TrEMBL record, chain A:
This is Biotin-dependent carboxyltransferase family protein. Keywords: ATP-binding, Hydrolase, Nucleotide-binding. It comes from Albidovulum sediminicola. InterPro entries: CT_A_B, Cyclophilin-like_dom_sf, PxpC. It comes from the Bacteria. Residues 25-298 form the Carboxyltransferase domain. SUPFAM superfamilies: Cyclophilin-like.
């Protein structure tokens, strides 16, 4: 059986896919990868379907081996990675054979790194998905000693690399008005837009706590508003005025007022803002938000065409003569 | 059809969401309206609508904003609102009544005294009132299978606390704003933890992962700590000693 052997794992490594949409009525939020773009990038690098499950590694990876030769890709928050001590590229696909050890260290920037395997991780689905939803009690963090089954992989290409923009360092996040924005006075909303926030250490797949200099943000009728449906990206302000940005594993309803909602196109950057990253927020109109959504989906559609052969240093290729230098992945131009 | 005060109201919720609210506070008619209106929206099967759900007094539609214009969807909702008096709609069919044994107070539910004080009554009176109240599942939400239950007598119109409690366990019975919530998973909360049950409102491994449905009635009779521990030790189903009967 093709398996991924986990010999060491960081504290928050979980199996994730595109989650469980459609269960809001039962109180179950969609969940799935905190950075869906990273999930799509892994699928593009391996040339496979976008709904296969991968390992999401929050902050820290682990050590991995395989029972049979396997292709894999690393995407999302850049982490130090090596095979048997030899550094390998991030946002790239590689090969690993039995006996080798893939080691993935801590995140250099960002919050969530991903390890994708050719054929995907093929654990048993629960309610239509393999994604761990820890808040709901579905699945559990992957522990050292785990052996995860892999799906069949009909393809063989590896050694591809994907150029990605930095979405791992915070920055400007676009938000739209939400059902409760009007509960915040215009001056409070302006102060929110003028404030520089820091992503607090208290962050997980449910949400990210923001810290700032100055007073908390107050809404009208803060503690007694009716519980209302929550969507990922909502900026919820708790009773003491602290903003939390809600992520895929958030609750489905909540009674704290929400100041606005991060647009879907900026949600991956929001989730990937690492500890200490600086963030600012800007309200945009619906037309601008829809245009951003159009561009975001075009980018996702274009992903499968973007991986390119990695440029390799010939001194690091032990059997150079066995490579065909005219065609294939290594070209004369590249080397 | 209007109930006044600007309701029902249609508002956006994020880029791909619309919220139809029937009131700004919980009421029996507004809750009935939400459940019935959501069922009607489901029957319409409008293109671009990906999912619907209810909360206490509102209906949420998740849609793809690039395949259906939000303004078009809003117009359809407005027309559907005009079709009947949603506030007078009947409750869902096939409802059940659950009696779920509950330990009030002790170290299992450490905020009973605080909540009784906020409601302006003694701990004994609080237990008497809460353990005899019949409440209804108003909506399932926050966490999977988790019921919001109401309404409790007026004294229980107590606000949520300012700070979050870091963690209450699965099966916790918490109170605020004339409602109970029966937690289906361990979670942080702003509600006060006054009782503990062994009932599992979400059973992902089971044939029926979500045992409770909007409209079901629940009662939380008081049992001793010893009786509760015996129930918990013997229970394999997740019912936590609950007795269930059909009420139509």
């Amino acid at each position: 059986m093709r398996e991924l052997i986990v010999s060491r794992a960081g504290p928050a490594v979980t199996v994730q896919d595109t989650g469980r949409p459609g269960m809001l009525m039962q109180g179950l939020s969609r969940g799935g990868a905190a950075d869906p773009v990273a999930l799509a990038e892994g699928a593009a690098l391996l040339g496979q379907a976008g709904d296969l499950a991968a390992l999401e590694m929050a902050g820290f990876g682990g050590a991995f081996a395989v029972t049979e030769p396997a292709r894999f890709a690393l995407t999302g928050a850049p982490m130090r990675a090596d095979i048997d001590g030899k550094a390998i590229a991030w946002s790239a696909s590689h090969l690993i054979v039995p006996g080798q050890v893939l080691t993935v260290g801590g995140a250099e920037r960002g919050a969530y790194g991903y390890l994708h395997l050719g054929g995907g991780i093929a654990t048993e689905p629960v309610l239509g998905s393999r994604a761990a939803h820890l808040v709901a009690g579905i699945g559990a963090p992957v522990q050292a000693g785990a052996r995860l089954p892999l799906g069949p992989d009909p393809r063989t290409e590896a050694g591809l690399i994907l150029d990605v923009e930095d979405r791992f360092s915070g920055g400007m996040i676009r938000i739209v008005h939400s059902a409760q924005t009007a509960l915040f006075a215009p001056e409070e909303r302006e102060r929110f837009e003028a404030t520089e926030f820091t992503r607090d250490d208290r962050a997980n797949r449910m949400g990210v706590r923001l810290t700032m200099a100055g007073a908390g943000f107050a809404a009208d009728r803060q503690l007694s508003i009716l519980s209302e449906v929550i969507v990922p990206g909502d900026i919820q302000v708790t009773g003491d005025g602290t903003p939390f940005v809600l992520l895929p594993e958030c609750q489905t309803t909540g009674g704290y007022p929400r100041l606005g909602t991060v647009i879907p196109a900026d949600l991956p950057a929001m989730a990937q803002a690492g500890p200490g990253a600086r963030l600012r927020f800007r309200f945009v109109g619906f037309d601008e938000a829809l245009e951003a959504e159009r561009r975001h989906r075009m980018m996702l559609r274009d992903l499968p065409r973007r991986p390119r052969p990695a440029i390799r240093d010939p001194r690091e290729i032990p059997d150079l003569l066995s490579y065909r230098l005219i065609d294939g992945m290594i070209s004369a131009h590249d080397t | 059809m209007a109930m006044g005060g600007g309701y029902p109201a249609i508002r956006t919720l994020g880029l791909g969401g619309l919220l139809v609210s029937f009131a700004d506070r919980l009421s029996e008619p507004a809750n009935r309206a939400a459940l019935a209106f959501r069922a009607a929206v489901e029957r319409e099967t409008w293109p671009g609508v990906e999912e619907t759900s209810t909360s206490l007094a509102s209906v949420f539609l998740r849609f793809d904003p690039l395949s259906v214009a939000p303004a078009d969807l809003r117009a359809r909702l407005a027309a559907l609102l005009e079709r009947q008096d949603w506030y007078g709609a009947a409750l869902p069919a096939n409802r059940r009544r659950w009696r779920i044994p509950t330990v009030y107070g002790t170290d299992l539910a450490p905020q009973l005294e605080e909540a009784a004080a906020a409601a302006g009554m003694s701990v004994a009176d609080a237990v008497a009132e809460l353990s005899q109240a019949t409440v209804r599942v108003l909506t399932i939400g926050f966490a999977p299978g988790q019921p919001y239950l109401g309404e409790l007598p007026p004294a229980w119109d107590i606000p949520r606390q300012v700070a979050l409690t870091r963690r209450v366990p699965e099966g916790a019975l918490v109170v605020a704003i004339r409602q109970f919530v029966l937690f289906s998973a361990a979670t942080p909360t702003g509600w006060r933890h006054i009782g503990q049950t062994a009932f599992r409102a979400f059973r992902p491994e089971s044939e029926e992962p979500f045992p409770l449905r909007p409209g079901d009635e629940l009662v939380f009779p008081a049992v001793s700590r010893e009786a509760f521990e015996a129930i918990r030790a013997a229970d394999a189903s997740g019912d936590g000693g609950a007795v269930v009967e059909a009420i139509g």
